[in-house]
Amino acid sequence: MKKIVIITSLLFCSSFAKEAKTQVMHAQDHPHASDYSNSSSARSQKDAILSSTAEMSIQLSTVITSEASEAERRSQASMSYLDQNRVEITDDMAKGEGEYLETLLSLMELKKDNKTMSNIQNNFDDLINLPHKEFLTKLKTLA
Question: Which residue from 66, 78, 104, 107 has the highest number of Cβ atoms inside 10 Å of its Cβ?
Fold first, then answer.
C-alpha cells in the first residue's frame, strides 16, 4: 500500500512540474555589466595584455626547451655513436672517407663534403688521442 501512495504522489507532483530550461547570462551583454567589474571573471584590457604576454612567454619557453632538448639528444646520440664505433671512425678518418665518419658527421649535422673529409684527414694526428667530448668539439671546428 505504501508503494502505491509513493508512486501516486510522484505522478501527481510531476504533472505540475515545468520543464527546466538552461539559461546563459553574459555580464558584458547587459547594461548591468558594470556591476560585475570587480568580479574575478571580468578582464580589463591591462589584464588581457598581461595574460597574453604570460601565454606567449610560456609558448616561447616551451619552444626553447624543445630545441635545447633536441640539441641535447643529438649530442648524446653523437657521443654514443662515437663510443660504439671509435675504431671504425678512426679508420675512416685515416682514409679521408667512409660510412662511419659520414654517419657521425650527419648526427652532428656537419658537412660531409670532400673539403671537410680532407680537413679531418689532415688533422688525424690531432684527433686520434682526444677524449670523446674534445674529439666532437674539434670535429665541429674542422667541418
Answer: 104
How far lies 57's CA from each of 47, 60, 67, 88, in Å?
15, 5, 15, 46
Question: How far is it, in rounded angstroms, from Cα 138 to Cα 34?
Answer: 67
Cell reading at 85: 664505433
Q: For residue 20, what is its C-alpha cell?
A: 527546466
Give one DSSP letter per residue of 16-64, joined into a string: HPPPP------GGGSGGGGGGTTSTT---HHHHHHHHHHHHHHHHHHHH
pLDDT by residue for the chain (143 residues), tens digit each? 545 444 555 455 555 555 556 665 555 544 555 554 555 555 566 666 666 666 666 665 555 556 667 778 888 999 999 999 999 999 999 999 999 999 999 999 999 999 999 999 999 999 999 999 999 999 999 98
Nearest to 128 by CA among 91, 98, 99: 91
| Measured CA angle at 99 (ends 94, 105), to 5 deg | 85
**What's this model's pTM, rounded to 2 decimal places?**
0.53
